[in-house]
Write a structure and sequence with these properties.
Family: Belongs to the ZC3H12 family.
Keywords: Endonuclease, Hydrolase, Magnesium, Metal-binding, Nuclease, Zinc, Zinc-finger
CATH topology of the largest domain: Rossmann fold
CATH class of the largest domain: Alpha Beta
Organism: Cariama cristata
Pfam families: RNase_Zc3h12a (PF11977), UBA_6 (PF18039)
Helix content: 40-55%
Strand content: 5-15%
Oligomer: single chain
Largest sheet: 5 strands, parallel
Strand order of the largest sheet: 5-3-1-8-9
Number of strands: 11
Cofactor: Mg(2+)
Number of domains: 3
Length: about 300
């Protein structure tokens, strides 16, 4: 009896608990049976303590945070990160490209710009800039029709739209290159470029611009009056649209399927599977590879 008592005390059980178990099972009980009964009593007392605490807590009236935060603090924290506009990247829209796309290349449709701006505003973006050449403020002409021109003035008053400079010299219009404004602002603000243009001439100007345009260009489509960017802006193995628009990803990406051939794969950057060994390598095109090999 005393040996069983000393053994249980060394394991950290209370003396009255051990005594109750030994009185119940008898002094001749096996040590394993005694321990099993002690464990059962310990679990029972813990569950009773938790139920008592929950009943006490249920009588308290919470003040301050909403019930959703009390019930699921992790969920509320994630929602807070998702809805935080500070985590969203600045948006720089190529106004001419968007307006001509919405006008089916036949006219400059200012409504297309408004649709694109509204889409990003609904997503919670606050830092949105649209660049449009200043000569688009002039009266519409048959060779360059402009529709819903009042939208440009409206967006300019809201400090969303910026006109790039232009002037007339001896009856000839002199315009600044608006694409350079777009890429420069997006690069400096670490933002997203919204355009279907690849800016190949600007990619050749600066190597850092080339890398930036490849990684931060968001293309889109118009389905009637619906602005639709792709769900996978950088391809099937790239980030989702939600994470692409954020500084810090908050939604876990789907697990990428590794290539069954591994390092022996000969498809190069055209392989549809994931190559972990190429994660930090730039996905160069065939033309770029030929240029590099020619230099070497």
């Amino acid at each position: 009896y005393q040996a069983k008592m000393d053994f249980a005390l060394k394991l950290g059980y209370a003396g009255d608990q051990i005594q109750a178990v030994l009185n119940k099972l008898g002094a001749d009980a096996l040590i394993n049976d005694v321990l099993a009964e002690l464990v059962r009593l310990g679990n029972k007392s813990e569950s009773e303590g938790q139920s008592g605490a929950s009943s006490t807590a249920s009588t308290l009236v919470p003040r301050g945070p909403c019930p959703k935060e009390i019930a699921s603090p992790e969920l509320s924290l994630e929602d807070e990160v998702v809805d935080n506009s500070d985590n969203l990247r600045p948006i720089v829209i190529d106004g001419s490209n968007v307006a001509m796309s919405h006008g089916n290349k036949e006219g400059f449709s200012c409504r297309g710009i408004q649709l694109a701006v509204d889409w990003f505003l609904e997503k919670g973006h606050k830092d949105i800039t649209v660049f449009v050449p200043a000569w688009r403020k002039e009266q519409s002409r048959p060779d360059a029709p402009i529709t819903d021109q009042e939208i440009l003035r409206k967006l300019e008053k809201e400090k969303i739209l910026v006109f790039t400079p232009s002037r007339r010299v001896q009856g000839r219009r002199v315009v600044c290159y608006d694409d350079r404004f777009i890429v420069k602002l997006a690069f400096d603000s670490d933002g997203i470029i919204v355009s279907n243009d690849n800016y190949r001439d600007l990619q050749n100007e600066k190597p850092e611009w080339k890398k930036f345009i490849e990684e931060r260009l968001l293309m889109y489509s118009f389905v009637n009056d619906k602005f639709m960017p792709p769900d996978d802006p950088l391809g099937r193995h790239g980030p989702s649209l939600e994470n692409f628009l954020r500084k810090r990803p908050v939604i876990p990406e789907h697990k990428k399927q590794p290539c069954p051939y591994g390092k022996k794969c000969t498809y190069g950057h055209k392989c549809k599977y994931y190559h972990p060994e190429r994660a930090n390598q730039p996905q160069r095109s065939v033309a770029d590879e030929l240029r590099i090999s020619a230099k070497l």
